[in-house]
């Protein structure tokens, strides 16, 4: 039996991430009641139909009024406005968090609107799918995934610990780091890969129509993995690139330098340079499999006809 | 019951692709006997242990002597030398094919060594995993995947048809096109995605060690898909980039132009340009799902804890 960690949880924003928190924390028995608020009447109604919470509010200020914990689950670019709307209504001791994929910019946007009597513990669960909205949520999303918390140095350790326990009870492994460090690591592990995937799928979509249809047909040869990544939510990703601009541009600069070297090797027929890089990257894959972030099972592309 | 299409099949090279042909055509009952030859004694011994063929030869010339069909399953850069070795020993009417991921360069390398009395029908099964060697082979690899054949205009249609039937009996969907068109389509659907994946994994592996270990840890956020692609066989891919240089450089040029536009949009905080591209790429994904090249199932990253 897990004890109740927060008698009253409020979720502002109830898409994939918020809905999954509702389902997972309910399942874990770590919250007493869940109050939900979201921008549009349609999403709020859908959340109610799905039975994600105990009370539903059009106005976020009402949803947070008695909350012991508030988690803001909206796109990064909307976090500041939400903080402004709820700030004056937060009760003393409340733990305020978010789930944004960028941290420093979110802290800059939210912190000025939060009263001194709350504990602000920004967070980012590193888990997701390419689907959005409350229907996409499911209780197992955070199982065995990382959740990074980036509390500022002065924050009450007891508040950080309570939020960490909430995430652990949802199955996540909690990691602490500074907001700036988080943003640099995610720029290379997540933001740059998404940018590259968006870019190559864009390049393909601009091809002459004769080739274009065959690009779809023969997508299984590598391209398809990129299209999955490039199907991620446009609003969320626009906000991420705008909010983590410096770190993304820094990593993009390194990527471009490396790509120039590789291009030169192809143009000059320099097989050794290609072979050396391709051998080095294989080792990275082995490390990832070794630390359990993926399996060594071959990927046949589609699930429907693998060896079983 | 399928009839025997080729009484004697010879496979030169018996890695992932060759071994899967052996297993699949045996299972389909379309070949009488299978002769196998490969460069190294160790691989030949392993093929024999796995029972992939009926006869095993160190010398490819001996393996092809009575063959009705010979499929060369070695890296693209080695196809010319294999053709030179087997050319004088091929029997009249023999169907000679290959499985190379690049077609025009392979045709240029092999054709001069093949006698006029054989039928040369180059091929490329668009199926694979990131694993290599005879142990990686399995009979279902070609199920529901494309196999592209690129016969020159003058080749005997009956020979093309026999080879097409062999592939269809292995579960593949056969498509005909010119070698040059194949190379352009594959440059964007396969070669460029691999190059980009190799490059970004290389960039990450050059990071300062403090960030590097976290790149592995948080790889599930997008990077991991790239490492799987970048774990593909270094020899095979070196050969592909050298052999399909022009088409790859052409696609790389377009990719770079698009990336400059995207970089500028990030630098200028131009959210509309980002949003528009990200919306356009989502539509491409939907087309791929619609034509059955992938499922709409969310990808949780790891197979071990998805909803089932
Ligand atoms: N998806 C992932 O893979 C993933 C992973 C980790 C973290 N995150 C982070 O989680 C957050 C939410 O992502 P999600 O995938 O749950 O998104 P989602 O499914 O699209 O849901 C977004 C939620 O935010 C609300 N919202 C959107 N724009 C808003 C605005 N301008 N003002 C106020 N509310 C707004 C939506 O409200 P209405 O529907 O009522 O309009 C909805 O409730 C983002 O910050 C993202 O960076 C996402
Ligand atoms: N893997 C894929 O995803 C994929 C997909 C479609 C097409 N293809 C094409 O299929 C072909 C083989 O790929 P694979 O994945 O089967 O490779 P693999 O598993 O590495 O097997 C390669 C085979 O070629 C032999 N070989 C390697 N270098 C050689 C050389 N210099 N001279 C003569 N023989 C040599 C190897 O012999 P030893 O082991 O005896 O040295 C082995 O029998 C390549 O042309 C590739 O472009 C691959």
UniProtKB/TrEMBL annotation, chains A, B:
GO terms, molecular function: cyclohexadienyl dehydrogenase activity; prephenate dehydrogenase (NAD+) activity
Catalytic activity, EC: 1.3.1.12, 1.3.1.43
Domain of life: Bacteria
Annotated keywords: Oxidoreductase
Keyword Oxidoreductase: yes
Domain Prephenate/arogenate dehydrogenase residues, every copy: 7-296
Entry annotated with the keyword Oxidoreductase: yes
Coiled-coil portions: none
The protein's name: Cyclohexadieny/prephenate dehydrogenase
Organism the protein comes from: Kaistia geumhonensis
């Amino acid at each position: 039996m897990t004890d109740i960690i927060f008698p009253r949880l409020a979720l502002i924003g109830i898409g994939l991430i918020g809905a999954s928190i509702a389902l997972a924390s309910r399942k874990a028995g770590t919250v007493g009641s869940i109050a939900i608020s979201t921008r549009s009447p349609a999403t709020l109604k859908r959340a109610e139909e799905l039975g994600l919470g105990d009370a539903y509010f059009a106005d976020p200020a009402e949803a947070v009024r008695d909350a012991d914990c508030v988690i803001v689950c909206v796109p990064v670019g909307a976090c500041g406005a939400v903080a402004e709307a709820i700030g004056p209504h937060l009760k003393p001791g409340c733990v305020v968090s978010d789930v944004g994929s960028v941290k420093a910019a979110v802290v800059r946007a939210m912190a000025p609107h939060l009263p001194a009597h709350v504990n602000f513990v920004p967070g980012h669960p590193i888990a997701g799918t390419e689907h959005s909205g409350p229907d996409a949520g499911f209780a197992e999303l955070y199982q065995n995934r990382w959740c990074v918390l980036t509390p500022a140095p002065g924050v009450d350790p007891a508040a950080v610990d309570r939020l960490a326990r909430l995430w652990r009870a949802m199955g996540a492994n909690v990691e602490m780091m500074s907001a700036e460090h988080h943003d640099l690591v995610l720029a290379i592990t997540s933001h740059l890969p998404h940018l590259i995937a968006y870019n190559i799928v864009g390049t393909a979509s601009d091809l002459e129509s004769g080739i274009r249809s065959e690009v779809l047909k023969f997508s299984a040869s590598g391209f398809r993995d990129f299209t999955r990544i490039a199907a991620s939510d446009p609003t969320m990703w626009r906000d991420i690139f705008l909010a983590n601009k410096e770190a993304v541009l820094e990593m993009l600069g390194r990527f471009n330098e490396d790509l120039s070297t590789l291009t030169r090797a192809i143009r000059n027929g320099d097989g050794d340079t290609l072979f050396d890089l391709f051998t080095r990257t294989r080792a990275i894959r082995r490390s990832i499999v070794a630390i359990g972030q993926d399996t060594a099972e071959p990927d046949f592309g589609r699930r429907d006809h693998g060896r079983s």
